[in-house]
What does this fold into?
Amino acid sequence: MKQPSSAAREPAWFEQWRQAWPQALAVWSKFTRLSHPQLCASSVEAAREGLSGSFAMIRLLDQSVVVDLEQVGHLGLESYGVEVLAHEIGHHVLAPANATDHYRLLARIRKALPTLEKYAALVANLYTDLLINDSLQRQAGLRMSDIYRRLAADNPPLTDITEPGVWSLYMRIYEYLWQLDKGFLGTAVDDDLFETHAWLGSRIVRVYAGDWLTGGSRFATLLLPYLVDTEFEPGEILSIMHDTKDAGLDCEPAGLVDIDPGEDDVMHPVEDPLINDDAPAVGDTGDVEPKADATGGRGQRREPFEYGDILKAAGLKLSDHELAVRYYREAALPYLIPFPSRPAPKSQEPLIEGLDIWEIGDPLDEIDWLQSVSLSPMVVPGLTTVKRRYGLVEGAVPASLPIDLDIYIDSSGSMPNPQQYISYMALAGAVICLSALRAGSRVQATLWSGKNEVMSTPGFVTDQDGILRVLTGFYGGATAFPIHKLRDTVVERKGAARDCHILMISDDGITTMFDNDERGNSGWDVAAEALAAGRAGGTMALNLYQDWQRQSAAQWINDLQRANRQQGWAIYAVNELAALVDFARDFSRRHYSCGAVATKKMERP
It folds into this structure.
């Protein structure tokens, strides 16, 4: 017997939801354009789209909406297609609207939830839902209050709440916003302080409708006492409503390394004069406007672990190492410099010499369609199709040959872990590496710590992520420079067409590079041979005090002075952002502006 099709088994309201999409878009504007939603007939199908726990979700990466229609049916929301879809569209149109603002909102809410940062994503979702639902209920006339009434009817325990809690406060805020009777949405709490908090919550939504990032921190401080309870768990109802849990999945972060100027503006709404008329004016507290720093007005820098926690809260499923790669790439971009190159004898420019037959298997974009149609109006691939033949002619402008980069990163226990706390040496390395790649150079990166603790890229490569993975790795062991790696690189690069600059990222432990290797060769000789083979000089960016040369004459100081004086290593102390900027600027001036290799003059702080 023939089985009925899946379409035949679908309830009629499935089609009504599909037809509701254009109407939901028009609720916001007739010009709103989004791709069609993924309306999944089953929870299994929704899980394949990444939806779990909630009955709907958004993805900021592709601006999509996913809805689990099976879950919608279980919740009794079959007749609210326009409302639910308009709400999900609101997340794309109003709040958070894009991944960057989503990250910024989470950062501000985390600041307002000390020790309870794990609830930041939930609080952000509740807050943006308030903004969206208030607009849809009052301005678009949609039945948002009926949805919560329906949810309360299907969850009898919610109607019996008599103690203040997150859900009861959330519902009471809606009742204030929409001028509904107390308990209309299923909860009724008899507590004066609770009523004050609910009124303040409604004021936050209205007052900060145009500045909802600031409003987010106010809302978080309001909710904080209700989250402090050690027994608090989001519960099924809050999980069902959490439609932005994985909204930032696979999005590329931007603008998150530096802390926003208003991110530290954490204030309880009762102290905010814009919300509470009895609150003191901001100027009465003696607050002083923060001064711009010496790095061009950039704000305080976020630590890598904080950066990672924000991205994880947004739904990104990355390891600490992968998050560190993104952190240092973004942190380095404002400081990229012109990377050096060498003049080449001549440049070669293509010159058309004639036509050849284009055959099946050749790249399609090589076909010269104008000449092919001129030969025969009836195009027959492989017979009448032709491609241009090019020769090379000496150009008028001299060519330039990029200089490669060989970088060695100290990962011993004396160095900061770049995956947890900002390492200005690692950031300096990222600046130079990304600058080199942008100039067409190839980079070999080597991470080292103790004996046999060495990791390197497979030779000189242009893989940005692979280079940054090595740069941001961490061993945390002993200190023993891999002299054999430097020695082997010397052998490999002898006679190479490209010059190579050598960069050391370390602290005083870099002087282990001058010890004898396992073959008894002097590290001083190996270092000298490396500089000679590279033909583009060497630089050391070290985690040292700026006045390290004025310290007692320790052996490592004598070794560094000898390295600079005899071999020409340029030495920089890089332990703060200002020193990093100076390092990048001077590196560019030395190697790019004048086209010269590193001088032998010792760097002074």
